[in-house]
Amino acid sequence: MVAPIIWFGIGIIVVIALVFIYYYNKIVIRAKRIDNAFSQIDVQLKKRADLVPNLVSTVKGYMKHEREIMDTITKTRAQMISGSMKDRLNANNKFTQALKSIFAIAENYPDLKASENFKLLQEQLEGIENKIAFSRQFYNDAIMDFNITVTTVPGKWFASLFGIGKKEMEYLEIEAGERKTPKVEF
Amino acid sequence: MRATFYEEISRNKRNSLILAILVSFVLFAISYVFLLFFGYSLFIIVLIIEVVYIYVTYTKGDQIVLKSVNAQPADDVKNRFLVDTVEGLAIAAGVPKPKIYIMESPEINAFATGKDPKHASVCVTTGALENLKRDELEGVIAHEMSHVQNYDVRFATIVAVMVGLVAIISHVIIRSFRYGNFRAKGKGGAAILVLFVIALILAIFAPLISRLVQAAVSRKRELLADSNGVKLTRYPDGLASALEKIMKKNQGKMNVSESVSHLFISDPNKSPLDRLFATHPPLEERIKILRAMG
Fold first, then answer.
1. How many structural domains comprise chain A?
2. A61-77 in b/e burial notation, b at 16+ Cβ within 10 A?
3. DSSP labels for B110-138?
4. Is position B144 annotated as part of the catalytic site?
5. B242: distance to nearest CA of chain A, Å?
6. Where in the sequence is the domain holding A21, given as residue range(s)?
7. ipTM of the assembly?
8. CB of B104 closer than 8 Å to CB of B130
9. Mutating which of A130, A132, A137, A181 best tests the B interface, going by the most B Cβ atoms within 10 A?
10. Neighboring chain A residues of B92 at a CB cutoff of 8 Å
11. Which of B2, B80, B234 sits opposite A124 (nearest CB)?
12. Which residues, 6 or more positions from B154, have their beta carbon under 8 angstroms from its beta carbon?
């Protein structure tokens, strides 16, 4: 008569252990995802900054009278790769605005507009702008996902057991319509 | 919404397993018919061929599909627009960047394949690249990316394997009954005759049944991928206007194998039997749902 009770006990312990492992992994994986999402934004901002020297050398000859815009481009480039993420994203927004002006000015120079190098640059810069927006979206989703997991029952109980609390991370707001960089029509 | 998304993934994994087991069981049954009529040597040969076929198509299924539609890898510079779009949506979906392919066709279409998000490929037609604007291409790619993300691609690959294999085997059975000299001798003659008839009926109807299964499972998946894709772009009108262009432009004459037609975003082959075998819900319905979201 003793044996079945022992087996029953072992069974319960195993089930409890499995539930703990399941929730621990679930919470840790979600926390990791936030970090990954954050570094993804970082990667894209750096990639965008890396394109700037090439852009500057391509358009320099045509932008002699646009000192202000060229200054904004070089200044925001530096801000895009250092400082807090919020500042960097702000710099990125200003950079996007300056880019729009450059592409608009390029309209007046048919040979610049037609150059393969310029076209590729334009596509790359625009592509990265979208990727930055997507990575911010993914980052926000990851935070929301994590917070839902650790603030709803039963995730909440396990989170407090493991000493993991709600992440008070800032959502990186995406302004309405920002992601759609207006493409200059040729 | 999130929870249901993870449910979709586990449902897809489970259904893939169930289907795989079912297919193996049916294949074994069919092989057994070979045993009854042609003896052990052929039974073992058929069994080995089947196992190899399943293994190869599961691990290399994506490559086979891509080859069968003659897809070429996209060029990082020449197709920058497409590459950027796919990379962006991979980031949004939180999956590794899939391999990107382009297939020659004037029609607007796209598909995703692979056994899991780590081994996935996305393929678009040249028609899609020429006719779709950024928003629209994004909508289409997001649809494909959600197939990748929730393991639809795995299930769809197994379905393609099943449909292809059932067609081949029933073809072989019918042929061998026609030309082969099976040993229906001795006292079990009558029983074997009955088996013979059953096998023949199965061989004739199996391709039909497998096509019905293919159609039924993929219709629901397309609607799901539409709405999950919108979750990635947050812009339902992009996909909606892409589907409108598809409706206007596509003729449904893409000349791809029936066994892969359920992979595409829009049915590549239109036929009079579409009501029964349609692998996709009507475009009008999909557009209406998307427009209502926006």
1. 1
2. ebbeebeebbebbeebb
3. EEEEESSGGGEEEEEEHHHHHH--HHHHH
4. yes
5. 17
6. 2-162
7. 0.77
8. no
9. A130
10. 134-135, 137-138
11. B80
12. B12, B13, B16, B114, B115, B116
Q: Establish, for the pair of chains A and B, how many residue pairs have beta carbons separated by less than 8 Å.
A: 47
Question: CB–CB of B157/B115 below 8 Å?
Answer: yes
Distance from the first to the final alpha carbon of chain A: 86
Please check whether residue B89 touches A, CB under 8 A: yes
Q: What is the pLDDT of residue B3?
A: 47
- Residue A15: pLDDT above 90? yes
CB B101 within 8 A of CB B77: no
The model's pTM is 0.80
Token couple for B195: 């088996």
Q: Which residue of B has its CA nearest to A127?
A: B84
Please state, in angstroms and rounded to a whole number, the distance separating the CA atoms of residues A127 and B77.
13
Quick one: closest CA in B to A177, which residue? B235
Q: Which residues of A touch B (CB under 8 A)?
A: 33, 36-37, 40, 44, 120, 123-124, 126-128, 130-131, 134-135, 137-138, 142, 145, 148, 180, 183
**β-bridge pairing B99-103 and B72-73:** antiparallel
Tell me if A134 and B88 make a contact (CB, 8 A cut-off): yes
**CB spacing of A120 vs B81 below 8 angstroms:** no
Alpha carbon distance B13, B256 (integer Å): 27
Q: Are B90 and B97 in contact (CB under 8 A)?
A: yes
Residue A168, in any domain of the structure: no
pLDDT digits (tens, 9 = 90+) for B254-266: 878 777 788 888 8
Q: Could you give the CA distance from residue B170 to residue B26 in angstroms, rounded to a whole number?
A: 12
Interface test with A, best of B9, B75, B76, B84 (most A CBs within 10 A): B84
Structure token digits, residue B21:
């087991």
Put simply, the chain B residues between 190 and 249 with a CB less than 8 A from any chain A CB are 232, 234
What residues in chain B have per-residue pLDDT under 70?
1-6, 34, 176-192, 195, 271-277, 294
Distance from CA of B93 to the nearest CA of A (A): 7
Beta-bridged to residue B73, according to DSSP, are B101
In the structure encoding, which two tokens stand for residue B203, read together? 């061989």
3-state secondary structure A55-105: HHHHHHHHCCCCHHHHHHHHHHHHHHCCCCHHHHHHHHHHHHHHHHHHHHH
Is A171 part of a structural domain of the chain? no
Query: Residue A169 domain-assigned?
Result: no
| Distance separating alpha carbons of residues A92 and A81, to the nearest angstrom | 10
On chain A, the residues whose CB falls within 8 A of the CB of B89 are 134
What does pLDDT average to over chain A? 84
User: In CATH, what number is assigned to the domain containing residue A58?
Assistant: 1.20.1440.20
